[in-house]
Amino acid sequence: MTKIVNHWIGGKPVASAAGASGTYGPVTDPATGAVTTKVAFATVDEVDAAVAAAKDAYLSWGQSSLAKRTEILFRFRALLDANRDAIAELITAEHGKVHSDALGEVARGLEIVDLACGISVQLKGELSTQVASRVDVSSIRQPLGVVAGITPFNFPAMVPMWMFPMAIACGNTFVLKPSEKDPSASLKIAELLAEAGLPDGVFNVVHGDKVAVDRLLEHPDVKAVSFVGSTPIARYIHTTAAANHKRVQALGGAKNHMLVLPDADLDAAADAAVSAAYGSAGERCMAISAVVAVGAIGDELVAKIRERAEKIKIGPGNDPTSEMGPLITKVHRDKVASYVTGAAAEGAEVILDGTGYTVEGFEEGHWIGISLLDKVPTTAKAYQDEIFGPVLCVLRVDTYDEGVALINSSPFGNGTAIFTRDGGAARRFQLEIEAGMVGVNVPIPVPVGYHSFGGWKDSLFGDHHIYGNDGTHFYTRGKVVTTRWPDPADAPSGVDLGFPRNH
Ligand code: NAD
């Protein structure tokens, strides 16, 4: 029997209205190619119902004490911890990534819940006493109201958790529109939040596509929008939400480069390149998709990468021996394959060709093998586009400066890494490179929760990175209160039309 995933509005599951356009959409198990689930697609009325529930809940949640909010978040953290495996299984069944990888994304999401549990420290205001005679000034931060999150398929648990723990800890109420390709994890999270005692309406989920997203972008009661997804949609979300006077942070796609200097530990660099390029089948915004080899080390580095990449075991995500699973859809698999097929004609050397790969017993799965392209020209589409699959491009340059210029000419600026033993070069790289996250002998790190995550250029539209201090700032607005309590001994105040001065 096909499983059904409904919306979550006002603290309970809500089925999609029968007869409405696009009422349900299919969810596929990428390892078998079979449709296993039907997910509700929200109409405008259903989005409005979720926003209304969130607005209603905000009346009391926005006024609730920090102690109450954090007590619920601590209980949610314990439930999340106890349900790691259950959530990871849902992710693997709909996304396809291997179980250990799915567990990893739950763990990284949990880090942001940890941060939200300590929100009282982050929301501490500032007070200046006696700025003028008997006058004090305090700065406080207050919640915005109803805020929305729109998230991608590749991290169905972690990316929503980059957003809602901080948002609700700050006193906002939340409407999540997860990816329609793997919606089950978000419903499980909604159930756990309810079990933790979160009041009805503080966290809502509407499933669906552009119809649901567009309604959130234009709804007058939605005060802020957090988005993570591809660059064209991020740009659209930023422009549309801003035109509707909303606060917006829209994280986009990536083409992450790893610069390998001639003095680097080449075994460590090859290990890092293979792990970061092919982990999660390359469907990570922090995947390494371009290695830039400096000087004469190119041939040796490519040989080491090849030797490791050839050993990767590809199979269903729920098989504990699999290291890499299938891609999200057949359409996406075919698009990824087209970059490899076209690479030679564009001047690249195809070292490993993963097209046409299949797994015995799972012939209808969305499989593709490992691809490694060497000496890729910067004009090749395989280099220019975000492929979002297990395809690694190697580019050759003669000098550090040439490598930095190449990386900085990319329109993307999410993350980048340098591998070297030269501290001076690494320091220069940190300062000169145009990207939001930098790894030194670390392949594109996802920053810990108490730092923030975000790229530059076409990888992020808006002023705020996500989570960390930026998260608290994004989900609150500032207020400055100037207070005077006159003393009976003070001289009478009197009228003064001059510009107020501090005495
Ligand atoms: P996507 O842009 O196709 O979809 C993201 C969300 O937008 C989904 O909820 C989807 O339903 C919605 N959406 C899709 N088309 C829309 C439209 N025309 N109008 C309104 N809403 C629309 O992205 P995806 O394929 O789900 O995810 C992969 C992309 O996300 C990659 O480009 C990856 O780099 C990026 N990503 C970026 C980060 C980051 O932190 N920068 C993190 C994870 C993923």
What is the class of the largest domain in the CATH system? Alpha Beta
- As a percent range, the share of helical residues equals 25-40%
Mean pLDDT: 96
Q: Got a strand count? A: 23
Distance between the termini: 76 Å
| CATH-derived architecture of the largest domain | 3-Layer(aba) Sandwich
InterPro entries: Ald_DH/histidinol_DH, Ald_DH_C, Ald_DH_CS_CYS, Ald_DH_N, Aldehyde_DH_dom, MeMal-semiAld_DH
Enzyme class: oxidoreductase
Protein name: methylmalonate-semialdehyde dehydrogenase (CoA acylating)
Domain Aldehyde dehydrogenase: 25-481
Structure description:
With 503 residues, this protein is of the alpha/beta class. It has two domains: 3-252 and 459-480, Aldehyde Dehydrogenase, Chain A, domain 1, CATH 3.40.605; 256-440, Aldehyde Dehydrogenase, Chain A, domain 2. It is 37% helix and 23% strand. The protein is built from 16 helices and 23 strands. The protein has helices at 44-61, 66-82, 84-95, 99-117, 119-122, 158-169, 184-195, 210-218, 231-243, 266-278, 298-309, 330-343, 381-384, 400-408, 423-432, 468-474, and strands at 3-5, 7-9, 12-14, 24-29, 34-40, 126-132, 135-143, 146-150, 173-177, 203-205, 222-228, 247-251, 256-260, 288-294, 349-352, 371-374, 391-397, 412-413, 415-419, 437-440, 456-457, 460-461, 476-484. The strands form six sheets. Strands 15-16-17-14-13-19-20 form a seven-stranded mixed beta sheet, with helices on both faces. A six-stranded mixed beta sheet has the order 10-9-8-11-12-22, sandwiched between helices. The chain has a three-stranded mixed beta sheet with strand order 1-5-4, covered by helices on one side. The longest helix is centred in the first third of the chain and has 19 residues, at 99-117. It is globular and about 85 Å long. The mean pLDDT is 96. Bound molecules: nicotinamide-adenine-dinucleotide (NAD). Nicotinamide-adenine-dinucleotide binds next to helix 8. Pfam families: Aldedh (PF00171). Keywords: NAD, Oxidoreductase. Its EC number is 1.2.1.27.
